[in-house]
């Protein structure tokens, strides 16, 4: 897997830094973020009857809204890779 760095939280302290990468070949976006509080996780799991609990091998991460431009850029990279 050859991932491409897209961006890092501009307000990071460089030790705890939400980050976005893409893997154009796999058509995947990868996120590093903060673990949600137990309350936030419960809210996510209870937000839809179809959701249930988060399965093993999956995770909920928190990303600050200021990273939206990086997430959009990651989506653009994936879209461009589809056109190859």
Please give the structural blueprint.
Elements lengths: L3 E5 L10 E5 L4 E5 L5 H8 L22 H15 L2
Antiparallel strand pairs: 1-2, 2-3
What does this entry look like structurally?
This protein has 84 residues and is an alpha+beta fold. It has one domain. Helices cover 27% and strands 18% of the residues. It has helices at 38-45, 68-82; strands at residues 4-8, 19-23, 28-32. A hairpin with a 4-residue loop joins strand 2 and strand 3. The longest helix has 15 residues, at 68-82.
Brief rundown of the structure:
The chain has 2 helices and 3 strands; from the N terminus they run E-E-E-H-H.
Helicity, in percent? 25-40%
SSE string: EEEHH
Give the DSSP E fraction (strand runs of 2 or more residues).
15-25%
Secondary structure: number of strands:
3
Average pLDDT, rounded to a whole number, is: 89
């Amino acid at each position: 897997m050859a991932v491409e760095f897209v961006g890092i939280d501009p307000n990071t302290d460089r030790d705890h830094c939400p980050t976005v990468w893409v893997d154009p070949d796999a058509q995947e976006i990868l996120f590093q973020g903060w673990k949600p509080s137990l309350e936030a996780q419960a809210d996510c799991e209870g937000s839809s009857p179809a959701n249930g609990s988060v399965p093993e091998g999956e995770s909920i991460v928190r990303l600050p809204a200021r990273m939206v431009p990086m997430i959009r850029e990651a989506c653009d990279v994936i879209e461009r890779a589809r056109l190859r």
